[in-house]
Design brief:
By secondary structure, the chain is α/β, with parallel strands linked by helices. It has helices at residues 6-18, 61-64, 87-90, 100-112, 127-139, 156-160, 178-185, 190-205, 231-244, 275-287; strands at residues 48-56, 69-74, 96-98, 118-121, 146-150, 168-171, 209-212, 215-220, 222-225, 251-254, 293-296, 313-315. The protein has one domain (6-315): TIM Barrel (Alpha-Beta Barrel). Helices cover 33% and strands 18% of the residues. The protein is globular.
Length: 316
């Protein structure tokens, strides 16, 4: 729950909103006046663009619990991952435009449905708009913890302004190799920025995960999607996480990669992950002495693009 006073929270909202006038919300630092309706890389102006809101049961057990995470999928993304499985929302920016007051009602409705938390998915381009809505919802009685589920390509300046607002950080650490980040997400500086941003997150909430009744209340889980044919990238990512943070940090190794139509001709990403590839990465994490690892079952079936189903997470 927030550790800020009402006035402190409001001043953070205002500071974040001011950043939109010469946008520097993420490492791309487009510098455009989004308050004036100009859009940069993310394609989002001053409004809230919501893809979908629902109780979500497919996250790690401390996030989803038995009643689901109160997940809001925010449209757009500051990455353009070639293999993205939510490209309709992230690349095409499909969604409903809302005012902060309207969106605050969406958050309150998720609480009324019994969700364990509010989980903002890909919030980076819309942090000022989201936090304003969260402020209004808190004023109206929202008392659920906030989970910040992001791609890892974050600005430390933005993350610092979220201290005391975010309870649980759920960042990706997608790449350990700069060339992979460049080729697949158009962000050759991903590793550096993800490292700096996650270090700030760890400084705020610690390098572990605290729970209340088996549900996350404060802390961090670092996620890594294992990609087919790219073991070097995964091993490099794990080595960097251990070196820069700690082997005590909770780690989630995802096996849910499913090729989209855009990946049909890619030399390695045209197929699903094999069980042996995934086990290789899990074994490497164990050898590196990571103490808390969430894993998924591997589904090797050759499913049609965009019809893959994420397997549930398990404690290892």
């Amino acid at each position: 729950m927030p550790t800020l006073t009402r006035s402190q929270f409001r001043s953070r909202v205002e500071a974040l909103r001011e950043m939109l006038s010469g946008c520097g919300m993420c490492p791309r630092k487009c510098g455009v006046d989004r308050l004036g309706g100009v859009t940069g890389f993310c394609g989002v102006g001053p409004e809230i663009l919501l893809g979908r809101a629902l109780p979500h049961f497919g996250e790690e057990p401390p996030i989803s619990g038995s009643r689901g995470a109160g997940t809001v999928f925010l449209s757009s993304c500051n990455l353009r991952c070639a293999y993205c499985q939510n490209h309709q929302i992230s690349h095409l920016c499909e969604g409903d435009k809302m005012t902060p007051a309207q969106f605050s009602e969406v958050l309150l409705e998720l609480q009324r449905k019994g969700c364990h938390n509010i989980e903002a998915v890909t919030p980076t381009p819309q942090v000022p708009q989201f936090t304003e809505s969260l402020y209004l919802a808190r004023e109206a009685g929202l008392d659920l913890p906030l989970v910040f589920n992001c791609g890892g390509y974050e600005s430390c300046e933005t993350i610092k302004l979220l201290e005391g607002i975010v309870d649980v950080y759920l960042p990706d650490f997608k790449y350990g190799l700069d060339e992979a980040a460049r080729d697949l997400s158009g962000a050759e500086d991903y590793c550096r920025h993800a490292t700096d941003a996650i270090r700030e997150m760890v400084g705020q909430v610690g390098a572990n995960l605290r729970t209340e009744g088996e549900i996350a209340s404060r802390g961090i889980i670092i996620r890594h999607l294992v990609l087919p044919g790219m073991p070097q990238n995964s091993i490099a990512a794990l080595e960097r996480i251990k070196k820069e943070f700690s082997a005590d940090v909770p780690l989630s190794l995802m096996a849910q990669y499913t090729p989209t139509t855009a990946m049909r001709s890619h030399p390695t990403l045209a197929r699903r992950l094999t069980r042996s590839e995934y086990d290789f990465v899990v074994d490497a994490a164990l050898d590196m002495d990571f103490g808390t690892i969430f894993t998924q079952e591997v589904d090797e079936r050759d499913l049609a693009p965009d019809f893959g189903r994420a397997e549930p997470f398990q404690w290892l």
